[in-house]
Amino acid sequence: MTNTDTILIIDDEVQIRRLLEITLSANGYKIAEASTGKDGLIHAATTHPVLIILDLGLPDADGIEILKKLREWYLKPIIILSVRNSEEDIIRALDHGANDYLTKPFRTGELLARIRVAIRQSQGPSDDPVLIFGTLTIDLASHIVRKKNEILKLTSTEFSLLALLAKNEGRVLTHQFILKEIWGMGYQEQTQYLRVFMAQLRKKVEDDPAKPTLLNTESGIGYRFGG
């Protein structure tokens, strides 16, 4: 770890902040803390965190509003940590730029794994090529996706999911394979979680999300990119 590996925790629960501080510090991360949305925005701008953990139930603002403000300029991963566990809440957070969503109570090992995945996915470009599928262009090096020459706003998780499927064009990838590749070992049974991400990705990539031509479902098995 380096001095730049600071994680910002925006949560008004003292016990949660203490638990996260102990857990993350033990794994080599530096910690910055904020108990309100206002302070969280200030800390995000001044500490330059590598990742933000954001609660939705803040005393001075709804966490979604803070998420929207952060996404006006903050490009690194944001993980939502909340007691809200409805699919509607998860989709709303992902729609506004969250990279991941974990509900309270949570397992610290699971949170650490998701942090590692989010940070890894957000790190530097590779020498991968540009993939072109009709009006959709996927630049694997710069992590930029264009549709009809307009840049799509994808989270790093959404990009990784799209890239995995596109690089395996025509091949059926099982739910378990995708979950392991994107989120890591231990998440291979969370097909509902994958379904939510696929629904969000279709909204951004497909001309008609209800009738996908690129991100196709293989019922009971997984997903296939293209024909």
Description of the structure:
The chain is α/β, with parallel strands linked by helices. The chain folds into two domains: 6-122, 3-Layer(aba) Sandwich (Rossmann fold), CATH 3.40.50.2300; 130-225, Arc Repressor Mutant, subunit A, CATH 1.10.10.10. Helix content is 41%, strand content 21%. The chain is built from eight helices and twelve strands. The chain has helices spanning 14-26, 37-47, 63-70, 87-95, 108-122, 156-167, 175-183, 191-205; strands spanning 6-10, 30-34, 51-54, 78-82, 100-103, 130-133, 136-139, 144-147, 150-151, 172-174, 215-218, 222-225. The strands form three sheets. Strands 2-1-3-4-5 form a five-stranded parallel sheet, with helices on both faces. Strands 6-7-8-9 form a four-stranded antiparallel sheet, with helices on one face. A three-stranded antiparallel sheet has the order 10-12-11. Helix 2 (37-47) runs parallel beside helix 3 (63-70). The model has no long low-confidence stretch (mean pLDDT 89).
Topology:
Layout: E1 6-10, H1 14-26, E2 30-34, H2 37-47, E3 51-54, H3 63-70, E4 78-82, H4 87-95, E5 100-103, H5 108-122, E6 130-133, E7 136-139, E8 144-147, E9 150-151, H6 156-167, E10 172-174, H7 175-183, H8 191-205, E11 215-218, E12 222-225
Parallel strand pairs: 1-2, 1-3, 3-4, 4-5
Antiparallel strand pairs: 6-7, 7-8, 8-9, 10-12, 11-12
Helix pairs in contact: 2-3
